[in-house]
Design brief:
It is a single chain. The protein is of the alpha+beta class and about 60 residues long. It contains one helix and three strands, in the order ββαβ. The protein is about 25% helix and about 40% strand. It has a three-stranded antiparallel beta sheet, with no helix packed on it. It has one domain.
């Protein structure tokens, strides 16, 4: 299971971290680019598409 922290602008003054778990193994990907693309697709399809200044960090 991959755990990531995401940050986005909750309003004009605050950027809040949020911990998400994605139920997939890191070894499922050949390289970092494939993993990044999967995370982007996951976030966009699970309610983060409209978030402003969205960033993430894999833990």
């Amino acid at each position: 299971m991959i755990k990531i922290n995401i940050w986005y602008d909750a309003d004009s003054t605050v950027s809040l971290p949020e911990l998400l778990s994605i139920n997939i193994e890191r070894d499922s990907f050949e390289n970092q680019s494939d993993l990044d693309n999967y995370i982007i697709d996951y976030l966009m399809n699970n309610g983060c598409g409209g978030k402003t200044n969205l960033t993430w960090q894999i833990l």
